[in-house]
Amino acid sequence: MCASYPKYKATLSLNNVIKGIIFLLAVGFLIRHISENAQSVNFEFQFSGFQVLAIVAAILLVPANWLIESWKWHILLKKTDQTSFKTAVGATLNGLVFSSMLPNRVGETLGRTLYLSPKNRTNGAFHSLLTSAAQLTTTLIIGLLALPFYFVVIDQELSLGLSILSLSAPVLILIGYFNLKTVFKLVSNWKWVRKKLSKHNEAFGRYSNLQLIHVLSLSIFRYFIFSLQFTLLIFAFESGFSFFHAFVSIPVIYLLTTTIPSFSLAELGLRESVAVLILGALNYSIAPILASTFSIWLLNIAAPTFFGLALLLIRKLNVLPLRQNVFSGATNR
Predict the structure, then answer these.
(1) DSSP assignments along 119-165, one per residue
(2) Contact 150, 242 (CB under 8 A)
(3) What is the pTM (predicted TM-score) of this model?
(4) Which of 88, 150, 90, 107 is nearest to 309 (CA)?
(5) Could you tell me the residue ranges of all domains in the chain?
(6) pLDDT digit string, tens, across residues 303-317
């Protein structure tokens, strides 16, 4: 046992080094993106009382946004791991830190599972994948359903192909969501997936339809919360913004930004470009669009990521698994 003590200490030291590197990289990404994009946004706006209230309301909805996301994961996680909701919230914020450095937020799952004991990380990862699948399903379905209405509003000809796609694709996506086990088996036909994940083929089969509906319902609720935030912020910077335009355009913005590969922090530039394209076609000025897009990113991504970074420093997080009881008195902290 004593011979294992140096190995334990070396692993612990390596954990701390890796955690420090992750912290510095994430801070660097945050600061760079904030400084680069803040310079392109004109915040010289005159706000009425209602517009100030809209900004305050958008800020107050930030905790609800991420608490719902944490709860989605927690209700699945508690069936296999006795993890508190508080830990689930911290893990979700930690996932934001890791997603800042990996494309399409794949780091969210990695960051979350590091909050769990090594034996529960595989289950935690699949639970996280399900919550992400539910949110993606929601975004795709609502976005596709709104797409034809957006084309009608901007007086563009609605093709038969687009009409069929907007009606049939949501049905197929919903069928796929409730048959994740089958989808996973089809994906497993890819050589790399089969080699890495073949032993987990039955993982998605353990979820009941009731659980899938519960997670999807929370995803829809969360979707409307961050859509409402975006609407409030656009109204704050553009008082003439039509809520009907918000209804048909914001889902399309989320649809496009979700389907285009990007990094979480670099997503800001992508979302700004897409928002200018979609809302610009509705004759809104560029400055309010950029200001609202930057603000929603600052509230929903940058600020929670800073909280996640603070928790990363405070929590004794094991990036590398430490074996329990490798020496007398040592524990997997």
Answers:
(1) GGHHHHHHHHHHHHHHHHHHHHHHHHHHHHHHHHHTT----HHHHHH
(2) no
(3) 0.80
(4) 90
(5) 15-41+48-314
(6) 898 888 888 777 766
